[in-house]
């Protein structure tokens, strides 16, 4: 069928349908060139494989069982890999896709189990601290005042310890952690990957234990998400799971699954966790993540069930409302509650932003310890008088959710709780400590809802179940803050009931919509506040007609098709930041692109002296630091290279590297003509993303969002005229993005 | 900061960094050209707007409130639009984003309410038919035999009517409908949009009523999804909602939301429906769809609640199991059940495929009426003896799910139900009638699970609740068939219980994994069986090293930068299938692309005689039909054009069209020089997707999946060497895709 079409087209008699013969000639030429370069450089025999595997700039979607290069399983010469290889081969005796699948499943199960365990340990430590503080502030040691003093001092000590942990181990541990994960999921892995270091895990857990144990009203689900993501990242560094690390798409899917696990293990809500990780994703969700996230969260949920069935830690109680048919009138009340919660949620976000702004403006140099100390003192003073205020918020939430009348707290105390906690949470969220916002939101929402419900009960009588309103308000206030509809599902799973499904969903939707009218979600606000790189949807109405030519960097370093090795070497030395270079012919027409590594090998094979003298040549060219937007092109690549160097010491699986060295030793004798003016042909082993100058910026933005390349080359009539990086686009959009 | 960077780069002393001045010169030239074309052709004053709005090949992601061109709201000269405009402006008095949002929300609410109502009406009609048939086959009219005869005859009549409806009104109504929606969501809107016609809605509803009413064991959720999608599509054709139709991304999001509504309204499961629509999406899910789908399903769920609370129709009963802590041993039993259900599900898929294959091979010419008649007769004969077999499957499912011991059915009868229904369902699913598979799967799964549970109860005693196993098995068998994990959530919402959350999720995951080991999901199988265009993940291991140059069509029609209007006209006449043409300079370097409409206007303004003589010229050039892969480039565009012509009669909002005619009448007097040899410059108003020849096919496939363009131009060193369409890629992958 395609054959017929081609013939049909071939018999077209129009003059205008030309450029065909030219193009075919060019194609043949171009094709020969490629094979020539293959022949002349045996090191690139596996070039295409390598391109697919490591140097592929785009995020590649993978097919189950199809994507993994077989060599991960077939060539494992080290003792460890040989053992695991034999294990897999003997025990499982399955074809490659299934082996790949087995590895993946093992990763997911380990991720779920490990994350849930770590999260439980953190929770347990918090509980131990709380019990300890209750004990020392009890009447055993003296009166009310002595109790208060010991409560106050421990609070101060723990909170200072919390911020010290962040300062000493990793400042990336400060805050919720979800903004950083959003940044990574939107494609800024290379810019935000510092958040995934092991020491950040330590800082986050220790800081979180101390902060909550010290009585600050912060939540643990954001930090838990962060913890799970770090665990996922660190797991993927293990040699057994390196295939995950190498596949950019799979890596992102695993971060998505880890987000789900983190949230699911905080609440025992597997479905809600998966949905939440969907909503955390910036713009598009790879559907294949879904089952992976589910598998991981279910593993986590099993551990959660096992651990939280023990009476060690406070857990959410299951509710048992007997709401029958919901009256349409009551639905209106729920909708109204949703609107109120949406307003309250956006007020909360506004306050957090304002507090942060005032702090940055008025107290820019204030020591972190002074800040945390003051807030911790105020929190201790305010929370000490009523016992339920200073205990685990889950106890208060359980009380507020209960279908019966309030037992411990009076409505006045609920109101007090609301009034005391709201400003405290607002201030605490911005402090330099690990601080989540989900649980405090649940608490604030349920206070509000309980009051609303009690009020309605006074008006309408016993038909109203105030606890039900507390549940709905908890979900919808959290939605108002985070703009995540999955809060509804999380609350269903927390309470174990689905009877109030429709009212909750209605209220949550209204809160979502109302909140979005006023401002953006807390996480997006935090991203702006902390200048985390992020690629959101662009507001096209604000940059309506901008073209690529207005944003691109016109001065683009390019390499001639036939170049002198010396010149190539100079370029490599001068631009250590770039991981790949565009290749043009002598008229400036773009032919393709070449990887840095390929170029180095080329230089090494052609004139190895250059490489030896490279230390002496280092001062050539302006080596001053490039701005970040150029630098980010190299970051990821470099780490990949570092890794492969490390791994080739221990596990020489990277056949490319071995070939390189082989070529080096062999060709040194042949072409040892330093400063030979002979031109070598530069191979083109990367197929770059091309855009034309007239392309609308919105369109290029879309391409960057979807394909996640690091940069795109701009061509005009075939000639290379510029380059465009992710950050150029973000910067361009940021002027409008930051205006609230 | 960018400024500094540019200066840094400007002072680079290397010779290799050249092509900069060239490129800038070229850029200026190119830019002037564009503005020149703007000046010479006032019709293209709004060119950029038009490009963004209609002719943008890519799927564009939209920003809430940012995307809608304001003219939808500012220029509404017709009475209807003026009225609605005033209404919106006066009543709401809100800024544009909010107005856009209001429209969108109205659309979603109407979609939810309308779909749920239609689905309820279909269900009600089925119920009426069932009651009628029970009445006429009861003992009132004679004995058992007379009852059977009337049951048999009505079954035959209704089933034949069902297939007649499909034949007469639209063959697209046959089958589940979900495969077509998957095709549309994977980007083949233009190839599958026939399924969204209004007459298909009629065929689908009528056919469904008759098929289920006629006693065939088919489900209604697939057809319901299809119905909701048709409603969404038809709603978007209303002038008030045209902005949805114009935005490709929004259109897809609405199809996604409609899928969610269709499923949610079948079961009253809003969350499950949203999740299901996520899993129906081929490869990536636009996160913005999430709240839209939720809003629509919640509106639908409100209606569902309202309508199904009436005792008109059979509904799923809420269960109330008292499963406490799930024993780890029991969890193993659930996991085993999941594995069994996965095997059974994939067996089901295999049987459906084999039955279809045998039918196609052995009985290719068999009349559809004979086929349906035979199956209907067999079904009637087999199902008549036991009353519960021939009633609404929901009654049987409620019985099987019940926590108490079985009342109506004995275990033997459950076994019989399984044995009778399994082959019947397998055969019915492939018949030329509307046929879903969810509800029969629920039924088969719950039969199996109940038997499994009863068996376990015999072994382990009263600790086992067989109804719980029926619930879990229903979800996991359905997952085994559809490979959708959301079945778990749907079953939670159907039964209203979350207590068996973890066991269900575990079983469903095991079923998913087990099923995927054997074959692909029923819907993917149906897609292959019925040759529906679909763009799934490509199995990279099977086309590992293919390059674009091996697949592309080398003979690409291109237009010279400076062309004779006569030649342009000839090209337009010769290739009515193409919606845009690449523009090259005289050396064959690609400069950009031009829309067909722009070209026609250019020809019209330059030499209007050509247009008048066009009817005479029609026989010029080979006008034979092109294969589909070229044709699909024009389809969508043409419909868009048709629409705008229609709308400009009634609501002349398309300012471009008006300008066109203005230019036409004005310029006829000026440039009436037919066959003038003067060359005109072709404007380049489309920025095409460019790929290089060496690009790996997997990468281009990924670009097609993510960006959803219709075609990509292949360049080599700047020269246009070929074109690549969606279907070329799919065809290339299909040779491997169809092998099971």
UniProtKB/TrEMBL annotation, chains A, B:
Gene3D superfamilies: CBS-domain, Clc chloride channel
Residue intervals of the CBS domain: 548-599
Chain residue ranges for the region called Disordered: 621-662
Lineage of source species: Eukaryota, Rhodophyta, Bangiophyceae, Galdieriales, Galdieriaceae
Classification via SUPFAM superfamilies: CBS-domain pair, Clc chloride channel
The keyword Repeat is assigned to this record: yes
Protein name: CBS domain-containing protein
Chief subcellular location: membrane
InterPro entries to which the protein is assigned, alphabetical: CBS_dom, CBS_dom_sf, Cl-channel_core, Cl_channel_volt-gated, ClC
Bilayer topology annotation: Multi-pass membrane protein
Alphabetical list of PANTHER family matching this protein: CHLORIDE CHANNEL PROTEIN 2
